[in-house]
């Protein structure tokens, strides 16, 4: 089955908003043994949309669209498809009732313009939207295109996901082949190219699986997909000794998830003292539910005064060593650990740019970890712009703690 996804909205062609819907849909299709053969993002241009729909109808068996089902002037996905296929739009009584009920529950009256959302191409079926006002569309065997299925869904992610899970995916299961299973291995502290070289032989040994390597600023993911769970298990067993201590974890989760789980398993706690990362590390940890079981808190000590007033660092230390130094990172880690009574204290300081800070070069980062057996420190020179350096530094600090927890 040739499946195409069309993400609709001019905002998707700018830097303001990313098309996350198609990524999520791709993952759900994989669980059904299906996959996209094409993905496209298109702006709110009637001419461009009509041309794209005409092309999609000639090359795809299943066309999934997200966006363009709302009540405003730039929402015309249904209208465009109806025009291309030469059919009329008629009001769907159930969609109108659903919209009235949606507004009544909120003690509001819908604007008249909202009722355009209840229009449905002749021959299509409405997909009810329990969390919004825009119904979707299931259109099987549209005029002149037998065997084709068109599915139109809202662009709002929570509405699209709910509609997919409750109404679209159950219909597709009957069409799907064998389900695809995924093995996900997360690795940290190793560049993508070095990891690729290290795993080449074992990956080729399991060449019957579909392999992907995904690198970000904080970690590398190895993904293997296949229909046979036993084949994935064999690959997992062979990869474990090759990845060694660089393996963060298997399955869902990332570096911060692994650190919190390790801390909880040991009954230990963490405190942070962040300078150049400005609270980024604390934000990554507290984004995870249940982080308070292991993460006590921390301080964003960006200025020299904050380092002295909040954590009690001696003025002569900062004057002698500078704010960006190994000695300062050690003092930060030890001070925050003592103040919060944590098992572990992490201290980060550095120069994320764009200029120099004292004697510290651009990209210079110092990370210290204070623990039950003393304090260790790590000096790094990280590439990238300001945001890149901050993100890499936060990940490096987490990875330093992760390795200490697993080797201790």
Describe the structure.
With 408 residues, the chain is α/β, with parallel strands linked by helices. It has three domains: 3-173, MoaB/Mog-like domain (Molybdenum Cofactor Biosythetic Enzyme, Chain A); 181-250, Alpha-Beta Plaits, CATH 3.30.70; 255-407, CinA-like (Maf protein, Alpha-Beta Complex). It has 13 helices and 17 strands. It has helices at 21-31, 46-59, 77-85, 93-104, 157-173, 192-205, 229-243, 255-266, 280-286, 304-311, 315-321, 326-340, 386-407; strands spanning 3-8, 36-42, 62-66, 89-91, 119-121, 125-127, 136-140, 149-153, 181-187, 210-215, 220-226, 247-250, 270-274, 295-300, 344-350, 364-371, 374-381. The strands form four sheets. Strands 2-1-3-8-7-6 form a six-stranded mixed sheet, sandwiched between helices. Helix 1 (21-31) links the parallel strand 1 and strand 2 (36-42). Helix 8 (255-266) packs parallel to helix 13 (386-407). It starts with a strand and ends with a helix.
Summarize the structure.
The protein is built from 13 helices and 17 strands. The chain has 408 residues and is of the alpha/beta class.
Give me some keywords for this one.
Maf protein; 5-stranded mixed beta sheet; alpha/beta; 408 residues; Alpha-Beta Plaits; Molybdenum Cofactor Biosythetic Enzyme, Chain A
- Which strand order does the major sheet show? 2-1-3-8-7-6
- Spans of at least 5 consecutive residues with low confidence: none
Count of individual beta strands: 17
Report Rg.
27 Å
Category by helix and strand content = alpha/beta
The major sheet is characterized as:
6 strands, mixed
Order of helices and strands: EHEHEHEHEEEEHEHEEHEHEHEHHHEEEH
The CATH homologous superfamily of the largest domain is termed: MoaB/Mog-like domain
Distance N terminus to C terminus? 51 Å
How many structurally independent domains? Answer: 3
In CATH, the topology of the largest domain is named Molybdenum Cofactor Biosythetic Enzyme, Chain A
Quick one: overall form? elongated
Strand content: 15-25%
CATH architectural label of the largest domain = 3-Layer(aba) Sandwich
Mean pLDDT: 93
What is the level 1 CATH name of the largest domain? Alpha Beta
**Helical residue percent?**
25-40%
Number of helices: 13
């Amino acid at each position: 089955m040739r499946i195409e996804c069309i993400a609709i909205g001019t905002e998707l062609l700018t830097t303001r908003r990313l098309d996350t819907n198609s990524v999520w849909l791709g993952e759900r299709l994989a669980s059904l043994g299906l996959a996209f053969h094409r993905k496209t993002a298109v702006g709110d241009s009637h001419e461009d949309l009509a041309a794209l729909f005409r092309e999609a109808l000639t090359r795809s068996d299943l066309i999934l669209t997200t966006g363009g089902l709302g009540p405003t002037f730039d929402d015309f996905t249904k209208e465009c498809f109806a025009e291309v296929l030469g059919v009329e739009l008629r009001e769907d009584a159930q969609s109108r009732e659903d919209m009235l009920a949606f507004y009544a529950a909120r003690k509001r009256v819908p604007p008249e313009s909202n009722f355009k959302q209840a229009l449905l191409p002749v021959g299509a079926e409405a997909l009810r939207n329990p969390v919004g006002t825009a119904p979707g569309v299931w259109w099987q065997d549209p005029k002149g295109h037998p065997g084709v299925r068109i599915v139109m869904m809202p662009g709002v992610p929570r509405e699209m996901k709910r509609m997919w899970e409750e109404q679209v995916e159950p219909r597709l299961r009957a069409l799907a082949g064998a389900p695809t299973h995924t093995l996900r291995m997360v690795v940290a502290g190793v560049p993508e190219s070095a990891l690729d070289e290290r795993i080449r032989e074992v990956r080729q040994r399991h060449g019957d699986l579909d392999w992907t390597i995904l690198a970000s600023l904080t970690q590398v993911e190895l993904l293997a997909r296949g229909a046979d769970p036993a084949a994935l298990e064999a690959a997992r067993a062979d990869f474990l000794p090759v990845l060694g201590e660089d393996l963060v974890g298997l399955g869902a989760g990332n570096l911060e998830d692994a650190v919190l789980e390790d801390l909880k398993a040991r009954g230990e706690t963490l405190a942070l003292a962040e300078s150049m990362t400005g609270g980024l590390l604390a934000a990554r940890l507290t984004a995870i539910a249940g982080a308070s079981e292991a993460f006590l808190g921390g301080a964003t000590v960006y200025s020299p005064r904050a380092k002295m007033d909040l954590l009690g660092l001696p003025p002569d230390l900062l004057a002698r060593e500078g704010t960006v130094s190994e000695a300062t990172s050690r003092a930060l880690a030890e001070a925050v650990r003592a103040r919060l009574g944590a098992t572990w204290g992490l201290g980060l300081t550095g120069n994320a740019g764009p200029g120099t800070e004292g004697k510290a070069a651009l990209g210079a980062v110092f990370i210290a970890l204070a623990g039950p057996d003393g304090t260790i420190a790590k000096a790094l020179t990280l590439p990238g712009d300001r945001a890149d350096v901050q993100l890499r530094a936060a990940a490096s600090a987490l990875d330093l703690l992760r390795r200490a927890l697993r080797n201790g």
